[in-house]
Amino acid sequence: MNWVTNNLETILSALGWHVALSVPAIVAALLCAIPLGWLAHRLPRYSGPIITGSGLLFAIPSLPLLILLPVITGAGMRDGINVVIALTLYGIALLVRSVADGFNSISSETRLAATALGYSGGRRFLTVELPLAAPIILTGLRVVTASTIALCTVGAVLGIPSLGTLFTDGFQRQILAEIITGIVLTLGLAGLFDGLLVVLGKMLMPWQKQVA
Amino acid sequence: MNVIQETINWLVSPQTWSADGHDMIARSLEHLQYSAIAVAFAAVLAIPAGWFMGHTRRFSGVIVGITGAARALPTLGLVTLFGLLLGIGLVPPMIALVILAIPSILASTYSGISAIDTSVLDAARAQGFTTRQLIARVHLPLGLAMIVGGLRSAFIQVMSTAILAAYVGAGGLGRFIFLGINTQHTAMLLGASVWIMVLVIVVDVLFGTIQRFATPAGVRRLNATTSAQSSAG
Q1: What is the pLDDT of residues A111-129, one digit of tens each?
Q2: DSSP secondary structure of A46-103
Q3: pTM attached to this predicted model
């Protein structure tokens, strides 16, 4: 505990970096996965390749990806933008399937009823399909949030600051408390974000009887 | 462009692969071997536990909790933690790898077994199947595809994490990445990264093929008809 009280500034800075890198990635993944998942739902012929492709993308190890991305983006290897891009790609890979499942779960009667009531395609998507698919998308987003926050630490090996810095620094300086602090904070942050998403889901989808 | 050319040169250079050079072939085999050992240990622990939980159809809360927490568990944190606690070498990262491999095998075994239709189990029992026969002739064939799926994601995750294990002094392919970082040898850094990606994707595709063959022919036909029905809607 001594280490924690003596190094609050280091810890808070690592935490701040961690949030700054992972939150944009989670948001970007959601924004990219919705149209992709919708495409997989609308074009069943391509849904196999889209889902298999995203599965393969998720299989790519994070460290090699973080090393290769700068060659494509032109950013420096220690630039946080590489972490954001890598985490976004992983997030999309995980979410596309949930989004497609969400849209697939809507019964065709509902869709036909909306059309019969005179809903245009765009309005039907925004006011009927998206809200009905949202609970399944939210479940996927919770998975993405947890894995994004955990994966974000890998960048520390390349010198990109995050809670992972507490692991590399703690290992090199042989400070056990630092590594444990990093693990506890990563798990805590994931738990906090998960709780926020559940609350947000209840606020945005009050019609949904949420089961824990 | 220059960097890319250098990387390709490094990858095609015989020195990279031969035993008197970087010996990438041996290191790749080593990497696969470590991953296989970790997954095997995890499977020995997780498959019986997952079977028990799935068979009794209880503990689903435990499974949800474990898989949820495992997702948020930072692999680098675990690797450095064991590295610091138990010292440099192969054993500390191996423990971390086994721990990381357990949740996906446990969860997939659980869902593979608990997803079996109860009427199938009742029918087997009514035919006079003993528990042993039930496991060998019902649970195993019907749950195998899911279990292989769990082994697949565990293997992929362990292969990725085994790269990080080189950070605390273990061997495998991660060695070239950290050597590349420390000596600013960009061609080696990029070349090793490309090679690891290729290797992981090959393993993933192989497991995918095994998974397809692990599904009994009858179930495959059943799935084909139900999926054709659901896409017609």
Answers
A1: 999 999 999 989 999 999 9
A2: HHHHHHHHHHHHHHS-HHHHHHHHHHHH---TT-HHHHHHHHHHHHHHHHHHHHHHHH
A3: 0.89
